[in-house]
Amino acid sequence: MVLVAFGIFLFVDFRDLEDRAYGHFQKSEFERILDLYPPSKKIESELSISLLSQSISALERKANETKTKESTLKFLKEEHPELIVKEWETSLGIYYHIEDPYILKLKKHGIHYKKSLIAKIQNIQKPIPKDKVSHYLLQLVLEDPRGLEAGYSQALANIVRYPMETIGELESAFLLETLHYLSSSSLSLFYENLFTVSGTNVNLRSGPGKENKEVGKVSIPETTFCFEKDGQSETVAGKTGYFVQCFYPHLSKSAWIFSGFLENIPANQKYISDLENRFNTTDSEERFDFVSWLGEKMPPGFYGTYIPRERILESGAVGFPLYGNQTKEFRKICKKLSGEKKYFEFSYMTDITKEAVPLLELNLSYKDNNQPVYLIELDHESIWINRNRYILDQGNQKQNLSLYIESRDGDKLVGSLKERNIGLLQNLKSYPIAMDAYQSGKSHWEICLPLAKNPTRDKVLLFEIKSGIN
User: Fold this and answer.
1) How far is CA 23 from the centre of its chain?
2) Residue 393 has pLDDT above 80, yes or no
3) What b/e readout covers 329-344, taking b as 16+ CB neighbours within 10 angstroms?
4) pLDDT tier at 372, thresholds 50, 70, 90
5) pLDDT, tens digit, for every residue of 30-78?
6) Please, which pLDDT band fits residue 470 given cuts at 50, 70 and 90?
């Protein structure tokens, strides 16, 4: 009863802290959010990590505003010396950049990562070095805009307004796909703002109005995506309209142009289809947990020789217990996966003092022949993958790790172990496999859980497994 009460206390305390952080965020009290989470505090919640990342982005903006620069830099230096502030040289002087240790801890392509990235780009309100502009732009176009069109389009419009270095051909294609998609979304800043130039040698200017410096010329059939309109109408060459700020993909820059020389055109559906196909690969992610498992019967979707286990609840999540074994005899239950897989993510918690506990096996099955690929085990301080060891520093706390399949070496796969986006172990070679069957797509992955026939007290609680290709 004491342990249960203590667990409930921790859960309530965690939620209370997160609620307080969110309350400060709603009031733009970003300094207070950092104060809630000292560097030594272990943070499990992606929402909390995202709030910290977004707070750093907001403070970076304040560090570059005249009214708040001095107080913000003083706060960072005195209260949070663990945060690194760098000085970037720009055409307008020094830009203060705060290195963000939190965004790297978020699952890439996940909702909290995307929100943090969008906030980081939105908070840039002064020119930054060209290579940094290109870096942020590339990070953004690698993320799926669907479901976040409003904030995503604002971030994209904000970053393309600054001078940038030339990006690669593939990345330029991704950018075009994104722009065409956003010009077709009613929630986007670019909605119905795709135009073709209708004149010859039309002036591009550094700001709205004929009095601003000319920065280039464009002619029909140049296309452009516009995102800002000046509020004052003007008449140019007998045409009445407005100056609008637009991005020119083929020029890799933004500039102001008079709207009288623009003709609205629809988005290219091929670009939109290409974007959807590119990101729909993430829909192949398979995820399973043990919420519907009751203990006496095998977890849904598994097959094999089952040994009944007790359902364990930890901080509101159902854990499937895996034990050490006195006699080294194990039974296995397995779950078939569909499609190609490039990563396997698993969350767990250990309670181990002596015996190593097998966590799971990753197998490839071909014509009813199961080939072991990776065996993952845990002891009181380490994780082992096919005899490769990494010492963990988080004790008996919930962990979330991923095994990525990255390449091939002869008849072996080569992978890496990561915690969110941080590499832990590299060059993890699998056991030998039938490479022809793997490459032809004739084999399929299976996840197997080893069940101890004579369990010890050492155990691991497995909460969830995800797998996919992106």
Assistant:
1) 24
2) no
3) ebebbbbebeeebebb
4) very high
5) 999 999 998 888 887 888 999 999 999 999 999 999 999 999 999 999 9
6) low
pLDDT at position 412 is: 93
For position 41, what pLDDT does the model report? Answer: 82
CB 336 within 8 A of CB 368: no
* Alpha carbons 388 and 404: distance in angstroms, whole number: 15
| Collapsed DSSP state (helix, strand, coil) of residue 256 | strand
Q: E-assigned strands of 309-429?
A: 312-314, 317-325, 330-336, 343-351, 357-366, 369-378, 382-385, 388-391, 399-409, 412-419, 422-429
CA 419 to chain centre: 13
Whether the CB-CB separation of 350 and 396 falls below 8 Å is answered with yes
> Structural domains in the chain?
2-37+44-128 (no CATH), 161-284 (2.30.30.40), 285-468 (2.60.120.200)
What's the average model confidence in pLDDT over 152-167? 96
Q: What is the DSSP string of 161-201?
A: TS--PPPPHHHHHHHHHHHHHHHT-TTSTTTT-EEEE-SSS
Chain centroid to CA 374: 25
Provide the strand spans (E) within 60-183: 85-90, 93-98
Q: What are phi and psi of 367, to 5 degrees?
A: 55, 50
